Amino acid sequence: MGLNIRERLNLAIYDSKETVLKMVRKISVVVAFIALGTLFYIHGFDIDRETKGALLFVIKLCFGFYVLRYFTRYVFAFDLKSFLRSTWFEGLLVLYLLVEGISDIVSHELVTHRVLEYFGFLGTVHIDSLFVQSLLFIIVIMEIGKASELIPRIKVHPSYLFLYSFIIIIFVGTLMLMLPEATVQEGSMSLIDALFTATSAVSVTGLIVVDTATFYSLKGHIIIMALMQIGALNVIAFGVFFTLFSKFNVSLIQHKVTEDFFGGHESNFTAKGMLRKIILWSLVIEVVGATLIYYTWSKEVGFTSYGDKVLSSVFHSISAFNNGGFSLFTNGFTNEALYLNYNLHIIIIGLMFMGTLGFIPLFDLFNYSKLKERWKYPWKQISFSTKISIYFSLGLIVFAMIAFFFLEYNNTLEGKSFLESVITSLFQAITPRNIGFNTVDIKQCTIPMLVIFMFLMFIGAGSASSGGGIRTSSFALLYASAIATITGKKEADLFKRTIPHDLIFKAISVCFFFLLGISVTCFLLSITESHILAMPDRHFIDVLFEAVSAFTTTGLTMGITPELSDAGKCIEIVAMYIGRVGTLSVAYLFGRKVISTAYKYAEGHTLVG
Length: 609
Hints:
The protein is mostly helical and 609 residues long. Helix content is 67%, strand content 1%. It is globular.
């Protein structure tokens, strides 16, 4: 009987279905912009109680609309079970909002407020209200995200889409950081400083022109944290969008570039599956990291509330895993309350190492199905690309750790025990590979160690990670090519695998691209920052170190970043942006111009060396 009633209802509303749903979609777009504008105004400006009450009422209306919209779609769905399965996440959000709405009408209090109050997380900031408004923001983003279905229809080259996506994120981040409520200072942040910070966060560099701990408010800290997370995942999202493009007239050459970035044919990724897996693993690692950090803060930190402690734990977990380099403490991990907390250092080391390793090696090493398969078939090994990432990463870390231990033993390590020196050396060995954290004053390090730091920054992190530099894969290919040349081999090889010539050519191109970019950046900074070079305690290596750090999106500095002129800040903004997007985008732009490779010129010979 129930089925017959449902069929009759479907027949009765069938003629109006398309019209109603189309109208609802159009209204959704308007409501989305209203919701974003309202949230933007509430959290960005200092408003009076009456205005805030009116804006909160607008937010409630937006909530009501999205609940009504979901139930409208539910009514018009012919297969209810299929609809609920495909919209389960949105359904859970709507159910939560419905419960909170009923609770607000009946008791004038949110359920979230009672839960947070019970666990003692309520402080001066209304976390419950922020949480509910964050859910509205998520719903709005989901609504805007549905527009991605139109991306394959847009006749835009993937490299341009990648470039524009970062520009849009940086632009929005700049506007948000310029809001009066984003800082504790009176008025708003200057445009150039906001642009620099947004670029540094989105490119997960970590260079700062103001003290993150004292200059920004809680809202500013959350904005920076969100920009780091979005910037780190954007490269992966680009790969996913490219998979969509691959179905719509994308060349084989462009396919190969993406395959190289994501680990080759062995990664076997699909658009939705890979992105979902990456987001899930990121969240799990960051939550576990934040939990461990939460329980290792020392008493010297002196948090004012549980909320501050939780925020700081989450912030540093995200910053460490995503190679962000931002810290909520003045002077970062060299702060008096942190530099002797070696338990905290070990946790950060673990997060940094996993972050620089890359997602494909993490999946290959720790995915349950892979572990089960290798346990059942011991002869099966990890993939070739994972071997490169693991062995070369460990080799560089061991080399840097030993070098730091001996070069800095009577310098920055003076007064530390053997175990403390080892942990400090390990921390400094990992951080130049694109994180930017440090537990010693980089400016006090010896010149040989600074040279090694720049060498490590140039190499950078692993492929398919959020780090920069030429990547360990490119370094491994250059190493294999050099060994083959020295030993007189006709073919370069690694781990009993022959390296194709086209991969070596790509590695050489990437290396040349970064050398050129760093050289130009350093040259321009030496012109614009002559006032820094004129200082008695500053030298050319300070500027060179800054240029390498900016272009490789590492974030280590010898302390000259806040002293940069506006022109110098602009140069570093461009360097961070190009260093973040340059390798892939340039490869695509050049790749699409190749009409044919089925030809060969006569050989030419010249002296080498």
